[in-house]
Design a protein that fits this description.
There is one protein chain. Helix content is 28%, strand content 27%. By secondary structure, the protein is α+β, with helices and mostly antiparallel strands. It folds into three domains: 87 residues, Rossmann fold (3-Layer(aba) Sandwich); 53 residues, ATP-grasp fold, A domain (Dna Ligase, domain 1); 209 residues, ATP-grasp fold, B domain (D-amino Acid Aminotransferase, Chain A, domain 1). The strands form five sheets. Strands 1, 2, 3, 4, 9, 10, 15 and 16 form an eight-stranded mixed β-sheet that branches. Strands 11, 14, 17, 18, 21 and 22 form a six-stranded antiparallel β-sheet that branches. A four-stranded antiparallel β-sheet has the order 5-8-6-7, sandwiched between helices. A hairpin with a 4-residue loop joins β9 and β10. The two termini are 35 Å apart. The relative contact order is 0.14. The structure holds glycine. The site of glycine (GLY) has 6 residues, from loops.
C-alpha cells in the first residue's frame, strides 16, 4: 500500500451495488477512504452521496465541490449515455469507453457485427427489425435459439428458448415492450459451460483478471428465473487449451477490432464466454465490471487498482504486471425473499458484527436508518471468503452466511459447485 504517490487524487465511483462497494474498498487501499466517494452508493459504502448519476452536470458540480479528478463508472448506462464524451472537454478524467465504443454492450447487433468483422468466435446469428420476420426461423430451429433485443434492457432483453412456444412468448414480450417494429437478433444456442473473463484495456493492450463464474439463476441447480447474479467465484480452473482458444479467438481479435476502429476505449472489457466441445464462443461484451464477479475478482487482485486505472488512462498498461493472491475467492449473494419479482424492503439486518475478520461484506441493497442497517433492494449483501482451495472458501463463506439474518433472507446453497465438464 502506498498512499504517498496518489496523495492528491480523489475518485468518484458511480453506482450503487456490491460491485461499487468492492471497487470503493479496493481504491481505498490505494488512496485511503477519505479520498474515495461513491454516488449514489448504499448503506455500507463510506462516503455515499445521493446523486442523480444520469445528470452529468450534477456529477461535474459534485466533483468540483469535492476536488475529485477521476470518475470510475460501475454500471453501463452512464457509459452508453456518453459520460466519457461529456467529461472529455473538462479536466476531470473518466475511466471507461466513450459512447461509440460502449455500443459493444449497448447494441447487441453492433457487437455481433463487430465480432463477425474481426473474426471473434461467436454463435451464428441473424438480424431482424420486425417480429413477423423471425417466425420462419423460429419454426426451422424448433424454437431452440436465443433472442436478443438490440438495446440495453437491464438484463431483461435476452431470451434463451427451447421450444417454439417459448420463442413466441419472447417475441410477444418484445412486442409488448417495443411494438412489432423492433431491432433484435436471433442466434444459435450453445449449451456449454459459461465463464466470465474481465480485463482492462488502454486501447492498445488487453490484460485479463482471473477467470470467474457467475450464477445467474435464482435456484440451486441453475433453475428458476434469471437474476442480477446469486454468487460467483474465482479463479475458474480451465484447461490450457481452452484458455489459449479464448486468448487467440476472442481476446486478441477484439483488441485488433478496437485498434482498427480507433475506438476510444480506456476501461474494463468483459467477455461473457460459453465453452462447448473445447471451443470458446463469445456470448456478449460488457463495457464494465461484472456484478457479482467484481466482488471476488478485486479481493483476488494483488496489484494496486489505482495504478492499473492510471496506466489505462495514460496508455501504458503494457508496463503493468498483474499479480493475484493465491487460492480461491467465493461470494454468496443474500437476497430479499420474492426477488427478482416482488419483495419487501426495510427489514433489519443482523449478525454482521459476528463475522470472522477475514470475511468480506460488500453491500448492495442496504440503507442505514436510525442507527439500524436495513434491506433496501433485491440483492442485499455479498459475503466473500478466501480459501486455499475452492472447497475451503465455500465452507468459510457458508459458515459466515449462517450468522446473518433478515426476514425472508434467501441464498443459493450451491455456489461454486458446478462440474464445468467443458472447461
Ligand atoms: N454478472 C453479469 C453481469 O454483470 O452482467
Amino acid at each position: 500500500m502506498n498512499f504517498t504517490n496518489f496523495m492528491n487524487s480523489k475518485i468518484l465511483i458511480i453506482g450503487t451495488g456490491g460491485r461499487e462497494h468492492a471497487l470503493a474498498w479496493k481504491f481505498a487501499e490505494s488512496l485511503g477512504w477519505n479520498s474515495v466517494f461513491t454516488a449514489p452508493g448504499n448503506g455500507g459504502i463510506p462516503n455515499s452521496y445521493p446523486l442523480d448519476i444520469s445528470d452529468f452536470q450534477a456529477v461535474e458540480n459534485f466533483c468540483r465541490t469535492h476536488q475529485i479528478d477521476l470518475i470510475f463508472v460501475g454500471p453501463e448506462q452512464p457509459l452508453s449515455e456518453g459520460i466519457v464524451d461529456y467529461f472529455a472537454v473538462t479536466d476531470i478524467r473518466v475511466f471507461g469507453p466513450d459512447k461509440q465504443a460502449a455500443q459493444l454492450e449497448a447494441s447487441k447487433i453492433f457487437a455481433k457485427k463487430f465480432m463477425q468483422k474481426y473474426g471473434v468466435s461467436t454463435a451464428d446469428f441473424q438480424v431482424f427489425s420486425h417480429t413477423d420476420e423471425a417466425r420462419k426461423l423460429i419454426e426451422e430451429k424448433k424454437g431452440d435459439l436465443v433472442i436478443k433485443f438490440d438495446g440495453l434492457a437491464g438484463g431483461k432483453g435476452v431470451f434463451v428458448c427451447s421450444s417454439v412456444a417459448e420463442a413466441e412468448k419472447a417475441l410477444a414480450e418484445l412486442e409488448k415492450s417495443y411494438g412489432k417494429k423492433v431491432d433484435f437478433l436471433i442466434e444459435d444456442k450453445i449449451n456449454g459451460d459459461e465463464v466470465s473473463v474481465i480485463a482492462f484495456t488502454d486501447g492498445k493492450t488487453i490484460k485479463t483478471l482471473l477467470p470467474s463464474q457467475d450464477h445467474k439463476q435464482l435456484f440451486d441447480g441453475d433453475k428458476g428465473p434469471n437474476t442480477g447474479g446469486m454468487g460467483a467465484y474465482c479463479p475458474v480452473d480451465m484447461s490450457p487449451g481452452v484458455w489459449q482458444d479464448i486468448q487467440e479467438n476472442i481476446i486478441q481479435p477484439t483488441l485488433r477490432g478496437i485498434q482498427t476502429e480507433q475506438m476510444h476505449y480506456k476501461g474494463v472489457i468483459y467477455f461473457g464466454i460459453m465453452v462447448k466441445n473445447g471451443k470458446a464462443y463469445l456470448l456478449e461484451y460488457n463495457v464494465r465490471f461484472g456484478d457479482p464477479e467484481t466482488e471476488v475478482l478485486l479481493p483476488a487482485l494483488q496489484t494496486d487498482l489505482y495504478k492499473i486505472t492510471e496506466a489505462c488512462l495514460n496508455g501504458n498498461l503494457s508496463d503493468i504486471d498483474f499479480a493475484f493472491h493465491p487460492g480461491y475467492f467465493a461470494d454468496v449473494v443474500l437476497v430479499s425473499g420474492g426477488y427478482p419479482k416482488q419483495y419487501e424492503k426495510g427489514k433489519e439486518i443482523t449478525g454482521l458484527e459476528d463475522l470472522p475478520e477475514d470475511i468480506l461484506v460488500f453491500h448492495a441493497g442496504t440503507k442505514r436508518e436510525n442507527g439500524k442497517l436495513l434491506t433496501n433492494g433485491g440483492r442485499v449483501l455479498n459475503i466473500v471468503a478466501h480459501g486455499n482451495s475452492l472447497e475451503e472458501a465455500l465452507e468459510k463463506v457458508y459458515k459466515a452466511v449462517e450468522k446473518i439474518h433478515f426476514e425472508k433472507m434467501y441464498y443459493r446453497k450451491d455456489i461454486g459447485k458446478r462440474k464445468n465438464y467443458e472447461l
